[in-house]
Every structure is written in structure tokens, then in C-alpha cells.
Amino acid sequence: MDAKQCRMARSGLNISGRELADLSGVGYATIARFEAGSNITDENRLKLAKALEEAGANFSRRSGRASVSVPE
């Protein structure tokens, strides 16, 4: 999952950055930095992805295109 996919998933799931912080155990400031383009640890990236996947997001990357699907 990259920063753009994180933003797309949060938007599609209607989850705020602070809610994602609570769900993932990653600090809100770290999420904000990540979504703004800064690097974060692989451990934190995995925690974010796992929390979003548990909320229903599905991440994929094919032919140079990143996508996220969420339940209706």
C-alpha cells in the first residue's frame, strides 16, 4: 500500500485519519506525514494496511496502476 492508496481507502471507507490511528495503533502524525509523501517504517505501513483491510479495503497494483476497492 502506498500513500495514495491509503488516502483512497480512508475516503472510500469514510475513516478519518484519527480513526485510522486508533484502529491501527499508528500515530496520527505518522499517518499525516505518510499521506503527505514522507517515508514511514515498513512496520507502520503494514499496520495501516492491515487496519484498512480489516475495515474492508482491498489493495491491488497492476500494469503501473494502483487501486483500492471498498464495499458498497
From TrEMBL:
Domain of life: Bacteria
GO molecular function, one term: DNA binding
Pfam families with a match to the protein in the record: HTH_3
Family matches, as InterPro entries: Cro/C1-type_HTH, Lambda_DNA-bd_dom_sf
Domain HTH cro/C1-type: 18-59
Residue ranges of the TM segments: none
Extent of the signal sequence: none
Protein name listed in UniProt: XRE family transcriptional regulator
